[in-house]
User: What shape does this take?
Amino acid sequence: MALHKLTLRELSDTFGKGEVTAAEIVRAYTLRINQVEPKVKAYISQIKDAAMVQAEALDQKLKGWRRTMPLMGMPLAIKDNICTQGVLTTCASRMLATFVPPYDATAIARLRGQSYLLLGKTNLDEFAMGSSTENSAFGPSRNPWNLSAVPGGSSGGSAAAVAADECVAALGSDTGGSIRQPAACCGVVGLKPTYGRVSRYGLVAFASSLDQIGPITKDVADAAMLLNVIAGHDAWDSTSANLPVPDYTKALKKKDVKKLRIGVPREYFAEGLDPEVEQAVMAAVEELKTLGGEIKDVALPTTNAAVATYYLIATAEASSNLARYDGVKYGLRSKQNKTLLEMYMKTRQEGFGPEVKRRIMLGTYALSAGYYDAYYAKAQAARTLIRQDFEAAFCEVDLIVTPVMPTPAFKLGEKSEDPLQMYLSDIYTISVNLAGNPAISIPCGFSKTGLPIGLQLIGRPFEEETVLRGAYAYEQATDWHKKRSTVR
Amino acid sequence: MQISKQEVERVARLARLEIAEAETEAFSKQLSSILTYIETLKTLKTDGVEPTATVLEQVNVFREDKSRPSLPVEKAMANAPESEAGHFAVPKIINET
Assistant: This one.
């Protein structure tokens, strides 16, 4: 049995029945990683040996016992900006190249509570700033469908690892599309939960009012399974919502979208959208209609302001959050440190890459005396309008359907010289972070060149169940999610 | 929107970021182009619109003012670039102007 080809649900069932041991699972994934990782470069650190030790201990412990927890023995990959106790967490930055967290992120502690197996930490754009993983201090990851294309970003390593069967599922983080966009590029499923649904404790902060941890998986059922474990209130994150967590897998009982009103925002189908992507997304809308959905036009009139709003708010928050990298408590310290000020300035020069510096500069500028009202305050007001757009639209519909990105995955190097072009590739995902809603990316087709295309379903805050139901119905009616990358 | 090299240097100092001469030039160009795009926000009417700082309902989260278990000193210090007797060590700051 080729264990690496199974979905999380299938592997969990197989393990639950005692048909396979945890050690066998790790062995199978070790083989697979050794085979394709030199080409895909999804991981920053692999800890297969530690995973094997854990797996053997788990097998020993389970002798004669029932295996009840869904993630028990499941080999996962974790984005390298999520703290894992005792395991290097670099954020793909020279600044944190040797940082070993003394604690687990809450999402990780919950996985650990189920005895999951950590295979390794995945690549990202430095501090999650980027849309291609090209901003990683340790080199880019590759798209398993076409090794000369980017896997998207910033959770590109997690998406590539899932697409290349180098783990059964992964966690990513999404500040402006960083789960959904790489999921679309790599033909897998990526879910950004509602802001506050999953604790951010232990997620290295980029833009605190936008960041969310979420699952990247092979199909929709797997995303529901992972969300079940990581969602919920956490006393260590005062912005995590104190609301009950439903069993998300129950949202998958219905295979139709009857009685669901589904909105198509015309602003998302304007200039700049690749015709192949438009065609695939519109065909998906037709499919949702066939499945019983009532399709309606909706307006999100502030859409055009979203990229500008996002790049002011996210960079302002980042400039503040990244002030902590000063060479004092952890991370890099420059050897040129005769004075404290010199230590700060040189440490930050040596530790940060160009995109991180650019965003710190932009955020500092937007917050600086004399510019605050024109930029930051203006962006906060625009954010209110963007949020109100969604509130108004969701009075008329239950789900909104859009593309995930304007084009399929672009080539490595294609946009890395032009930051603004790179920012514009997030145009369909960032509004959702500004408004706080949940959204999923699922495969809905392929370009002529064989690159995956993603479909985005957006729901009301804390209605992940509706998002999952819509995504599952579409997935069950189509075969896109069964197609696997050919990397070997 | 033009961001001069002097402006770049001013912002870099505020951000405690040393930047090389070549970077100053590149940032001046790139930030100008990004801010020119961002200027499009000016056309958006926001008179009387309340700002959004967070999408959550604004509630204060309190906890009891009681000590609770936390990281032991050795663990908290384990990543320190330099430490002395359980403290973070930094370059001398007294007499610095």
About this structure: Residues 61 and 237 of chain A are 33 Å apart (CA to CA). Chain A has one domain: 3-263+397-482. The mean pLDDT of chain A is 96. The longest helix of chain A spans residues 373-396.
